[in-house]
Amino acid sequence: MPTLMREKGYSYAFNPKACEECQGKCCTGESGYIYVSRSEIENIAKLLDLSVDDFGRKYLFKKGYKYSIKERLYEGSYECVFYDRQNNGCTIYDARPSQCKTFPFWDYYKQRVDELKEECPGIIDE
Fold it and tell me: Is the pLDDT of residue 1 over 70?
């Protein structure tokens, strides 16, 4: 039995082994926002060996008072610019934003487990 991830207050568990077969559904699909904090911007820029300014110009856009990572269009779907389709993974995994680290345990999904199951094959009812 695989090791499941659980978070207090959530009615489901997550099997991270599902990521191997998933094709990055949490990194692709409908357009959305991948918000990053100042410290996350600095960490990703450092990982990519870029200045914060260069990183911002190349990979971020401003939405209201926040910054989000850009997406790219691929065959009618959107994906994070750091999603590596060939290797089915994240090219900035070690510095990925907390929004990515905490998926699928987002407050939004507490009452929308059926919607989450459609997006993530690793969700297991408990």
Answer: no
> Do 31 and 40 touch, CB atoms closer than 8 A?
no
Do 104 and 15 touch, CB atoms closer than 8 A? Answer: no
Tell me: the pLDDT tens digits for 74-95? 999 999 999 999 888 999 999 9
Q: Is-contact 108 13, C-beta < 8 A? A: no
9 conformational bin, left if phi > 0, alpha if psi -120 to 50, beta if neither? left
In angstroms, the CA 71 to CA 68 distance is 9
Amino acid at 27: C
Those residues whose C-beta lies under 8 Å from the C-beta of residue 85, and which sit 6 or more positions away, are 24, 74, 79
pTM: 0.88
